[in-house]
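Q: I'm building a small set of examples for a reading group on sequence design. Run inverse folding on the following structure and report the sequence directly after it, with nothing in between.
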């Protein structure tokens, strides 16, 4: 018996020294038999801090009683075999038992199990993993994040290898893509048409798109109606949050500072060119159509179809004629944007409301704020859709009720009754 105990002690000490000397800062703390060590490093407070100081680590914060943790554990150990036993590994895989090291888990805002976080060496940055928990998904996340962190380090610390200098007579290739950032974004896109790529340097899909995006910009360099641009979300995160960027790359079409459409097809050069040409054709034809409209010089007469509207159709209001069209009678206006999901859901009910109100002394109308920004700004439209009721050119109230045709028609009929009583 004594010999067996001595053998176990010897094996444990040997394993401990091997791990400690091979991967400094990764001493294990485990209750398992030394003959069956877990491939993932088991951290306590001291070893976690030591590992984090020297290495990039991907950690599973868990609890032994957690069923999801038990299900993930074999996959986590498989992931550890890939990285913990490899030479020149870009990171190490570890675990922290939050029932034992509660303070450590609290420090890292662990509120559920398992919580998976990838830390940069030194702990200055981390990324929480919330994807699928199979081995291939975890490996893909590691590779993507490691590439991203490496790019951030290059930007912060400078290149680790000498940069090859170009010959003095070798001309630099100028990019045709306009680079945007948090400082110049608003002023740059405030006027005109822009096709903008929101990206992150570490994103592999963004890297694949980069030469295609450059080629797209080059092919349109002589077209003065459109600007091909890009914005790095890792350095201008506030802008990306403002426009709801949820993944990379995201490609948005802007008109006069407003995001009006999103490209969602396969990102080939042909598809991108086709998208741009279709948008340009639509925008320019609309612009020419508006330019051709003539406002009456005298009397400021309102078109008959807007005031009478016997067919019960929705009147399309524009900047140039908005005031004249709401100047007489009751007008219920929907201010919207074509890309707005709530607006899309409201559209059928708004059409039905117009049909229901046919023959009544009320006009059901709409204003596309992506096309008529000035009038929407003047009417203090802060979100989409915004529904406002006007009487004789004056705002009566903003509607905030339900958006079924029943709710909307009840509101309008009540306002008509009030007016009749007066």
């Amino acid at each position: 018996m004594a010999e067996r105990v001595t053998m176990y002690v010897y094996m444990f000490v040997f394993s401990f020294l091997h791990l400690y000397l091979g991967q400094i800062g990764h001493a294990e703390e485990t209750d398992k038999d030394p003959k069956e060590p877990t491939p993932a490093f088991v951290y306590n407070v001291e070893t976690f801090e030591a590992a984090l100081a020297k290495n990039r680590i991907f950690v599973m914060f868990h609890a032994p009683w957690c069923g999801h943790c038990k299900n993930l554990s074999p996959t986590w150990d498989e992931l550890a075999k890939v990285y913990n036993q490899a030479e020149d590994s870009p990171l190490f895989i570890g675990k922290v038992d939050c029932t034992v090291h509660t303070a450590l888990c609290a420090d890292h805002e662990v509120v559920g199990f398992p919580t998976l976080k990838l830390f940069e060496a030194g702990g200055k940055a981390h990324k929480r993993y919330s994807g699928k928990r199979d081995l291939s998904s975890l490996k893909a996340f590691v590779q993507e994040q490691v590439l991203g962190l490496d790019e951030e380090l290059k930007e912060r610390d400078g290149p680790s290898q000498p940069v090859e200098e170009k010959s003095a007579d070798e001309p630099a290739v100028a990019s045709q893509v306009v680079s945007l950032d948090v400082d110049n974004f608003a002023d740059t896109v405030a006027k005109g048409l822009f096709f903008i790529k929101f990206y992150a340097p570490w994103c592999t899909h963004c890297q694949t798109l980069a030469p295609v995006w450059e080629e797209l910009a080059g092919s349109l360099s002589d077209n003065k109606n459109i600007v091909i641009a890009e914005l790095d979300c890792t350095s201008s995160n506030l802008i990306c949050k403002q426009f709801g960027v949820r993944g990379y790359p995201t490609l948005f079409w802007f008109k006069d500072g407003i995001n009006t459409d999103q490209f969602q097809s396969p990102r080939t050069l042909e598809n991108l060119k086709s998208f741009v040409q279709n948008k340009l054709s639509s925008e320019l034809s609309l612009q020419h159509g508006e330019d051709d409209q003539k406002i009456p010089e005298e009397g400021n007469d309102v078109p008959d179809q807007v005031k009478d509207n016997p067919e019960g159709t929705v009147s399309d209001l524009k900047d140039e004629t908005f005031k004249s069209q709401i100047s007489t009678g009751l007008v219920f206006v929907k201010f919207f944007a074509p890309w707005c999901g709530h607006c899309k859901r409201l559209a059928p009910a708004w059409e039905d409301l117009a049909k229901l109100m046919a023959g009544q002394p009320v006009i059901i109308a709409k204003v596309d704020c992506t096309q008529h920004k000035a009038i929407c700004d003047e009417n203090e439209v802060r979100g989409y859709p915004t529904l406002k009721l006007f009487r004789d050119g004056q705002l009566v109230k903003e509607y905030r009720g339900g958006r079924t045709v029943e709710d909307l028609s009840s509101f309008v009929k009540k306002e008509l009754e009030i007016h009749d009583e007066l």
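The chain is about 40% helix and 20% strand.
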